[in-house]
Each structure stands twice: as C-alpha cells, then as structure tokens.
Specification:
By secondary structure, the chain is of the alpha/beta class. It has one domain: Dihydropteroate synthase-like (TIM Barrel), CATH 3.20.20.20. It has ten helices and ten strands. The strands form two sheets. An eight-stranded parallel β-barrel has the order 3-4-5-6-7-8-9-10, surrounded by seven helices. A two-stranded antiparallel sheet has the order 1-2. The radius of gyration is 17 Å and the shape is globular.
C-alpha cells in the first residue's frame, strides 16, 4: 500500500500516473491544457483510459526551462486541482519543488507531492508532507534547477541514484514523513546519458531490492533519450519507446509509471503483469 492523505492505494498492480501539465512550455504538451476546461477534459479522458493518479504540474522542467514564481505556479495549478478534486474521486498529485506551492495544492485537494529535487531545492516540502500525511515522491536529480540537465555524467549511475535516494529518504524521515508515504523516482532524463538511462531501466531490479517497502516510480514517457535512440525528434512520435521502457520497468519491479499516453500504457501493464504471473 502507498498511503496518501486521503486513502491507501494498492500496489498489487503497478499504478499508471497520468501527466497533466498546465504550463505554456512543457516539452511535449506545453500550452495544451493551460485552460481549466481543457485540463478538466483531459483529466476526464485519462480517468476513462484507466489512470490511477493525475499528476498536475505548473512549472516546466524541460531542458532550458526557467523557474516561475511560487505565486504564478499556484495560480496555474490550484484552480485545476480544486476542480478535479470536486468532480472526480481520483488521487491528485502536485508536481512541484516549492513548499509554498505544495501547501497550496494540498489545501486545494492534492494528496500526493511529487518533488523532482528529492528535497534538495526546498526541504520544507517534507514538512508539508508530514503535516498533511500526503504521499511523497522523491526523485533523483543533480545540480540546480537551471543545470539539472547539463550535469557531467557520473561514473556509476546506479550507485549515485541509490546514494541520493537514501539522502532524500533520511531528510523526509527527519521531518516526520512515514515510510509508507514515500515513493522513489529514479529520475530518467535528468543529468544522465543515453546509456545511463537505459542502464537504470535494465538494472531497476537492483534498486528495487535496495529499497524494499518503497515503490519505485519510472517516468520515461516521451523523453529525449528515447528520441535519440529511435531518431524521433517529435516527442509525440515516441510512443513505441515509451511503452517498451514502461514494460521493461514493470518487469523489473517498477510499481508506478508516470506517462502521457495513459490508455496504451494501461494495456501494456496488463500484458506484462499477466505474463509475469506465469513466468
């Protein structure tokens, strides 16, 4: 079970977390859902497609993106979170690395906080999670916001990810976050080479064994390393790579997939889980 402020979510079958970016500049769908009606329509679609969680982001983390103020981020996400929470019985996650945004989002109805910095940018996010007993996703990344995607690669990516996730868990625990609230994200695409991204997926079972009790989240959906490997410049043309990555990740123990293409991923997860039962 993964505990949030509103429920316990079963992990018997891997969860599909649908991405809903209410930003003007996200790498794949920037501007498409900035309007609240468009965002609500997309949330309805993802639920119908089988999404278990809706992850709402108000600040793009694509390479070259610039930070926005907490007030601007709040103005983007809070109306959407309020509308979805009132209309749909689905866990809502806020994708942010600012404690002020996290707090406002939780007050609006979010029950999971998804922090790409793993508490490096703003440790007070852990205090928000502890106070409200929300779910908390801790992601591996390196560098500051502006340099996350331009860090020189480390020699041993598995050891690096393991070390940093342990730091994040310790910081969360020190703030009073319970272990059952925490999920871990390996941070594909953030300061990692093509080879390192593939290695993290291929050897995900090593990290699963290192962190028993913590569900591992994988977010490969439409990312640039898939585009490089497949020769696909348009993120929307990377579905095949996204599904292959998701399938391998689930086979190797991933419990949460963060994706743009919900329906196709739900189908892929069904095939993998049913096949694995017979292995």
């Amino acid at each position: 079970m993964w505990k949030t402020s509103r429920r316990e979510i079963s992990l018997d079958v891997p969860l599909v977390m649908g991405i809903l970016n209410v930003t003007p500049d996200s790498f794949s769908d920037g501007g498409r859902y900035a309007d609240i009606n468009a965002a609500l329509k997309r949330a309805d679609e993802m639920i119908a497609e089988g999404a278990d969680v809706i992850d709402i982001g108000g600040e793009s983390t694509r390479p070259g993106s610039k930070r926005v103020s907490a007030d601007d981020e709040i103005s983007r996400v809070v109306p959407v979170i309020e509308a979805i929470s009132k209309r749909l019985d689905v866990p809502v996650s806020i994708d942010t690395s600012k404690s002020a945004v996290a707090n406002a989002a939780v007050d609006a109805g979010a029950e999971i906080i998804n922090d790409i910095s793993g508490l490096r940018f703003d440790e007070a996010i852990a205090e928000v999670a502890a106070r409200h007993k929300t779910g908390l996703v801790l992601m591996h990344s390196r560098g500051e916001f502006e340099t996350m995607h331009s860090q020189p690669p480390v020699e041993d990516i598995i050891t690096e990810v393991e070390k940093d996730l342990r730091r994040s868990i310790s910081a969360a625990a020190a703030a009073g976050v319970a272990g059952e609230q925490i999920a871990l994200d390996i941070g594909l695409g953030f300061g990692k080479t093509l080879d390192q991204n593939l290695k993290l997926i291929a050897q995900l079972d090593r990290l699963v064994k290192e962190f028993p009790g913590f569900p591992i989240l994988v977010g490969a959906s439409r990312k640039s390393f898939l585009g490089k490997l497949l020769g696909k410049d348009d993120p929307k043309e990377r579905l095949s790579g996204s599904l292959a990555s998701a399938a391998i990740a689930v086979w190797n123990g991933a419990k949460i997939l963060r994706v743009h293409d919900v329906a196709a991923t739900v189908d892929a997860v069904k095939i993998v889980t049913q096949t694995k039962l017979r292995s």
